[in-house]
Design a protein that fits this description.
- The chain is an alpha+beta fold.
- It has a single domain, classed as Ribosomal Protein S8, Chain: A, domain 1.
- About 40% of the residues lie in helices and about 15% in strands.
- It is built from three helices and four strands.
- Helix 2 packs across helix 3.
């Protein structure tokens, strides 16, 4: 029983220092917003940020533009991300540890 508690605790994701919701942004606007957030996060010494990109369910032709754009941008810049917990947005939100 004790091991289970430790395992659950080890997988606990810390609270985010900031959250950015990109709903309604174009891909170009979203990229700029993310760049600004990451710069601010580094300057402020934040440890973890969440970016809400949505799942693209209402995108024209069903193509999820924002999630793809932001994931590619983060990867290009050398950041790693995980999906948020389901109650925090699941696959529609990315969490970046800095």
């Amino acid at each position: 029983m004790r091991r289970e508690k430790r395992r659950k605790k080890a997988h606990y994701a810390p609270v985010v220092d900031a959250e950015l919701d990109l709903h309604g942004c174009t891909a170009h606007e979203a990229r700029g917003e993310v760049e600004e957030l990451l710069e601010e996060a580094i300057q402020e010494g934040w440890m973890r940020v969440r970016i809400i990109v949505g799942k693209g369910l209402r995108s024209p032709q069903g193509i999820a533009v924002l999630p793809t754009t932001i994931k590619n941008f983060l990867t290009e810049q050398g950041y790693t991300y995980t999906y948020a917990k389901l109650e925090d947005g699941g696959e529609g939100a990315l969490e970046i540890s800095l």
